[in-house]
């Protein structure tokens, strides 16, 4: 691990800690707003840090096209992070993680449509668009099926 990576991890941990410390049960609106800013910042830095670490790993490897591999790796990291964040938000019945997960997933889908699929051959591009459409349809159906569970919030 490099010193830059360690520095990033410390900054991320500090932001999560600030977000936690600013959200006691009796916190005012201003504290909650700053806690939200710190929490969103920590999550975005986490995704950025994971992406940069993946890129560094790919650049050290003997791949013939590390740029192309990096694009698909970023998409996978962002999608997995959004999925975990969404699952945690549903399990904890919290709105903030769910909203951030949806925003990150939307950014991932936009990246896929604008960048990733154009790196593929035409047949694979067709398959990718079909798969993406099916995943979006499945997500919509699952959301409507479990809407009451997903939207229920305890805090």
Give a verbal description of the structure.
With 155 residues, the chain is mainly α. 82% of the residues lie in helices and 0% in strands. It has helices spanning 3-21, 29-60, 66-92, 95-114, 122-145, 147-151. Helix 3 packs antiparallel against helix 4 (95-114).
What's the story with the biggest beta sheet? none
**Secondary-structure content class:** mainly alpha
Bin the strand percentage: under 5%
Query: Outline, from the CA principal axes?
Result: flat
Q: How far from one another are the termini?
A: 38 Å
Spell out the helices and strands N to C.
HHHHHH
Mean pLDDT: 87
Helical run tally: 6
Helical percentage: over 70%
Layout of SSEs?
Layout: H1 3-21, H2 29-60, H3 66-92, H4 95-114, H5 122-145, H6 147-151
Short précis:
The chain has helices spanning 3-21, 29-60, 66-92, 95-114, 122-145, 147-151. With 155 residues, it is mainly alpha-helical. Helix 1 packs antiparallel against helix 2 and helix 2 (29-60) packs antiparallel against helix 3.
List keywords for this structure.
mainly alpha, 155 residues, single chain, 6 helices
